[in-house]
Design brief:
Layout: H1 2-14, H2 19-33, H3 53-66, H4 84-97, H5 99-109, H6 125-134, H7 137-147, H8 150-165, H9 169-180, H10 190-202, H11 219-242, H12 246-253, H13 269-286, H14 318-338, H15 342-360, H16 370-380, H17 384-399, H18 410-432, H19 442-449, H20 451-461, H21 467-470, H22 474-500
Helix pairs in contact: 2-3, 5-6, 5-8, 8-9, 9-11, 10-14, 10-15, 13-22, 14-15, 15-16, 15-22, 16-17, 17-18, 17-22, 20-22
Length: 510
Amino acid sequence: MQNQAESMETTTRCIHHSTDFEVHRNWLAITHSLPISQWYYEATSEWTLDYPPFFAWFEYALSHVAKYFDQEMLNVRNLNYSSSRTLLFQRFSVIFTDALFVYAVHECCKCIDGKKAGKELTEKPKFILSVLLLWNFGLLIVDHIHFQYNGFLSGLMLLSIARFFQKRHMEGAFLFAVLLHFKHIYLYVAPAYGVYLLRSYCFTANKPDGSIRWNSFSFVRLISLGLIVFLVSALSLGPFLALNQLPQVFSRLFPFKRGLCHAYWAPNFWALYSALDKVLSVIGLELKLLDPNKIPKASMTSGLVQQFQHTVLPSVTPLATFICTLIAMLPSVFCLWFKPQGPRGFLRCLILCALSSFMFGWHVHEKAILLAVLPMSLLSVGKAVDASIFLILTTTGHYSLFPLLFTAPELPIKIVLMLLFTTYSISSLKTLFRKEKPLFNWMETFYLLGLGPLEVFCEFVFPFTSWNLKYPFIPLLLTSVYCAVGITYAWLKLYVSVLTDPPVGKTKKQ
């Protein structure tokens, strides 16, 4: 037994661990060993607590189980502490909390129309959707290899979406309010929730042409929704309001001193913008149009996350990204109000809000693409055009997560897992919509097949070139830029679909 324990210890230490292990271990230690008044001030580790209070209480609850595995992990001073029992607890905590995600998938599958159901179980939309969600490649590597709790949080979001399909609007609103106080990144999709609840719940009837019947507005329903938001917010922020610490909490939640792009550029508009700036700066230096001494020393591809000044193009501020994000969201929000399409229209608006914030947000993490990929799975089994958009978005978005797993042992794992998921996604959706036109045109097929040569170059060719030492950022830059093109295309294609779809006619309101 002792030899087995020593072997396990050695094996665990040899496996690469992401920084998120230490992030969440530190949060366990903070919430377990310090009073609540110090949670958002503690800064012994660089990985300070920067999630909303509900997540802090979630860590607090987990810490009371963690102490039975290894008490040392709960010491704030034990920076970068790791042990086999600590890692075992962290892994199992993700698996255990994924139970909520499994339940949410079950509820979402109940909302799917079974008209296209084939004779075989594997051809039924509900079965396909359950596989697309439960075995989602991105969620698997981010949570169970890289390490985070996105499955638990995504479960709350999917469950709230399912409640809207089931006409249980109050429950859906409550779940989303709770979700916001677990992780504030979901503010990105708040406009879709707010407009949909106002349009389809507070207004109780439509005219025959689908427009609002203004005299059907229910103040009781509006007050009920407001009360839910108030009570959830009071429960979350109340203790910190009493301690006069709200400014400190918000300063942790919204750290605008970080740079425009994450250490690895998320594949969005700013990746394309920054890449163009980098190309122009190189050309400018070669043609001696730029003074090398006046070029900022900080490199956005060096892993730094502080504010960054572009060389040729105008530098981008947090306010500029906010305005761009707002402008990008507005058409989808207007469609949700003026062209109501029920819960399906809400879901499409939610995805567009998620993608718009991913495309134009400040300091976006590459993992945020899951905020759009997972709900898009629900649409993929409904219409062929949505299935096409889903496959482009999910394949490109999942490939953009490859840099998260960068060690040699992880290379075959991520390639095999992605090939399995992508092959199933394409084959199952092609079978589901086999009576309709092909899901991809020649241009889309060519682009998706291009991911193969890109991976070969980045992993097997570039490391052996002379550029590897001089330009080590090139694989990340190419991955980010190539994937940004695909995600931008999927975003635009979904927008065209939403803008051109006719509004639903007369609809009965619950």
